[in-house]
Amino acid sequence: MTKHRSAAGVVALYGRIYALGGHNGLSISNPWNATTQIEHLDGCSAHVEWSYVSPMNVTRSRVALVSNMDRLWAIGGYDGMKNLSTVEMYNPHTDEWTFVSAMESHEGGVGVGVIPLENVPLDGLKLADVAFSLSSEVNESPETGTSTSSRP
């Protein structure tokens, strides 16, 4: 990758490896050390190198990631001050991030498993008994009060 990261999420889609969010390793509790940046490594390209794609809308480290339904999903995480309930969906064809339905609880360090057409968090740092499925329905972000209107 072009920069060192700690607590970043990693996921694969279409022969590319994506590294999302994380922090610079100096202090996870300082929000200025976390990032919204995403890099990908295209394993199918003749010239293999890390390059950036559009950043997420929210700073996230300890984020759960999954590729499903032709999209990347960034679920929960930690912004340097609090665990997050927001979920963002990335469309690699348009290079856009969109807020989708948020979780009911704030989760950082959550695990995600794919059951045909559903994403189910398995555990988080709160050790909550939480399960939900993701929807591509666009929602307003509770953390930022913003939304986007694009849909997959």
UniProtKB/TrEMBL annotation:
Keywords: Kelch repeat, Repeat. The keyword Iron-sulfur does not apply. InterPro entries: Kelch-typ_b-propeller (IPR015915), Kelch_1 (IPR006652). The keyword Repeat applies. This is Uncharacterized protein. It comes from Tigriopus californicus (Marine copepod).
